[in-house]
Design goal:
Helix content: 55-70%
Structural class: mainly alpha
Number of domains: 1
CATH topology: Butyryl-CoA Dehydrogenase, subunit A, domain 3
Strand content: under 5%
Number of helices: 6
Oligomer: single chain
Distance between the termini: 83 Å
Number of strands: 2
Length: 230
């Protein structure tokens, strides 16, 4: 089935790179892609530090909890590749001619965006909690700014992914233009009359049959006329 559906134009239309980059959804994807780089880049590069000169091994700055750093890196990497994947999907979405395939793409976007919003929420709470419990030594102070940046951009990522999920939900509810047309024209009641015949009501008239003109004045036995007897 060809035609406009799920927030995109008619299948097979030309892709305008400039218009595509100006779309709010594209800007949101690029923004959260940058946020993911900031989070896992900050943790990998500056959140593994030496506690002091007597401990040469690298420790996670978040309360020396390796799980906190590993979780932040994992969520950042998942978001990084997820943004690239859905960026490509958005780019070629208009080329998808099947409404069912478009519906699957929108549902996948909705589920992934909601899932990433949840992961970033957990990451923000986890990193913030571990950072509050961290005792800043001279070595840990060197990576304090990177730790705060990872926490801050984890929070910002929650907002962006929630907005992406809401936009995907809006696209899903929009559905196809044809389904909206059918809903507006025919309504939800299957017993409703067909709109192509506005003059007919579809119900037989219950009015009694009217006598033809001049019949009421006729008498059964006119004057002067005798009924013959047999």
């Amino acid at each position: 089935m060809e035609g406009a559906s799920f927030g995109a134009g008619r299948a097979g239309g030309a892709i305008d790179p400039v218009d595509f980059l100006k779309q709010p959804q594209t800007l949101l994807r690029v923004t959260t892609w940058i946020f993911s780089i900031v989070v896992f880049g900050s943790i990998v590069n500056e959140c593994y530090v030496n506690k002091d000169s007597q401990h040469p091994e690298l420790l996670c700055i978040f309360n020396e909890n390796e799980s906190a750093c590993s979780y932040g890196i994992a969520v950042g990497v998942i978001a990084f590749f997820g943004c690239i994947f859905f960026f490509v999907v958005d780019l070629y979405f208009q080329q998808i001619s099947s409404v069912k395939d478009r519906k699957r793409a929108v549902l996948l976007d909705l589920g992934f965006s909601g899932f990433l919003a949840f992961l970033w929420f957990v990451a923000f709470c986890f990193l913030a909690n571990q950072w509050q419990r961290t005792t800043l030594t001279r070595g840990f102070s060197q990576g304090a700014d990177a730790a705060r940046a990872a926490i801050a951009f984890s929070f910002f990522s929650i907002i962006i992914w929630v907005v992406l999920a809401l936009r995907a939900l809006q696209r899903y509810r929009l559905g196809t233009d044809m389904s909206l047309f059918a809903t507006e024209q025919f309504g939800a009641d299957p017993s409703a009359s067909y709109p192509g015949y506005p003059g007919g009501s579809g119900v037989e008239s219950t009015e009694t049959y009217q006598s033809p003109p001049f019949t009421e004045t006729l008498e059964p036995n006119p004057k002067g006329y005798q009924v013959p007897a047999y």
